[in-house]
Amino acid sequence: MPPQTFAVDCGFAQNPSRGTKRIVMRFFLLMLLVVGGGCAKYEFDIVEPADLAKHIGRNEETVLKRDELEYRFLAVEGRLLMYVANPTEEQIELIGAESTAVDPRGQSHPFRGQAIAPHSFIKVILPPMRPYYRSGPSFGIGIGVHAYRGYPGRYWPGVYDPVWDGPRYFTVVDEADTIYWTWEDEGEARFRLTFKRGREIFHHNFGFKRKKV
User: Which of 17, 45, 106, 128 falls 20 to 30 Å from 72 in CA-CA distance?
Assistant: First the structure.
């Protein structure tokens, strides 16, 4: 009979002792502290227009109104989340080709155009997130135990490796597509949003400062 294999997550094929469970749990908690403690948290300040200067935090939306539109800002995982609401009875269009994001290095980037239907909103993530595609195993950090069974009554405990336990995700990088950019560390970025309502064209300028908290 050929050898058989099977896997047991977070345990041994035979019941581990309480001491072994405590060691595994402490190691798991230590890994969480190491991984979580190394992630810096960022929030933002509105610095332009000066009369609308406000802080944008991670726990509560910052709200302001400009002309017909209502903006709601929130800091999420180091990015600036911006909701733009249209409370009017007419459709308002964000003209992406005529809107500009200037990153902290001074490079200009376009926006994606979107239409805002009456009494609805759009969501804009700054900087934009690159798309992902899935292929093969995924990469990650995990704790567990893998046991191999060869012949009846004989077991060889090993280490469970989650690397090959699921699909792999890759970031799509297209250097020619300047819509994507990065906002690393602390720095300022400027935005000019161009909108169209009927035949009317209007602009909203913003400046944001990213700051570590």
Answer: 106
Check whether residue 106 and residue 125 sit in a common domain.
Answer: yes
Bridge partners (DSSP) of residue 158 are 146
Torsion of CA 45, 74, 193, 68, to 10 degrees: -110
29 and 60 in a single domain? The answer is: no
The answer to whether 121 touches 91, Cβ cutoff 8 Å, is no
Tokens of 120: 């609805």
Q: Does the pTM of the predicted model rise above 0.85? A: no
Cis peptide before 127 (omega within 30 of 0): yes
Estimate to the nearest angstrom the gap between the alpha carbon of 193 and the chain centroid.
22
Whole-angstrom Cα distance, residue 64 to residue 83?
11
pLDDT in tens, 53-106: 999 999 999 999 999 999 999 999 999 999 999 999 999 999 999 999 999 999
Q: Which of 45, 79, 47, 73 is nearest to 60 (CA)?
A: 73
Residues 120, 65 within the same domain? yes
